[in-house]
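Bit of a strange request maybe. I'm writing a small parser for structure token strings and I need a real example to test against, not something I typed by hand. Could someone generate the tokens for this chain?
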Amino acid sequence: MIKCKKCDGSGIVIKGNVAYKCNCTKQRIMELKYQESRLPLKLQQYTFDKFELKYYPEDEYPADSKNATYREIALNSLEAAKKFAKKNSVSAGGKGLFFCGNVGSGKTFLYSAIANYLLSKGQRVLFLVVPDLLDEIKATYNKEPETSELELLQHARNIPVLILDDLGAHNYTDWTRNKIYSILNSRLNNELPTVINSNLTLEEIEEYLGERITSRIVELCDIYRLLVPKDIRHIKSLERRM
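Reply from user aminoacidic:
Good idea to test on real output. This should exercise your parser:
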């Protein structure tokens, strides 16, 4: 690691007889928070001001909902995400958010923007992909793991803001359901906010994960369904080729 030229890596700058904390210390703290968050590098560029409403038609309605246009639904979800991030930037607590909707609808962008806003304010965040987390827990059953199952679960239970990605249609067993339930139940009891992302509706989640977990999600989160007529990632891919 390259040492700071101002403080020579000590974190302290001395001017006269007064010692000051070097600016590199703040940068190092921020780097450590991002490291702890496990937010992928690609997602660290997503911020609220980059959320593009142009991909949500303002005069079209989803086939199964005539109460709001695609644009109105997106605006509602965006404002909820902003409000959540601001509320939990200093002290985390209360209800979280559950974003569901079709693939490429902007869910990933919103929870990434939430994470980046919170991290920029110094809040601790943990980003976990559900299938990967379950694989990590299973890996702890091997000999001499770097991290124990209890440590993984406790971190997810106690982090101020938890983001769970891809709570989808996987091959869940009673074992995996119990692990997910233990995290959600603990966070509900301790009033710690959780952001959950899924391509499934609540009805579909109940089918795959059961009533207990669905009930916890409803208690734990405000529900937002984000929809688009076409996969935004596919549209952007076509735009880059033009």
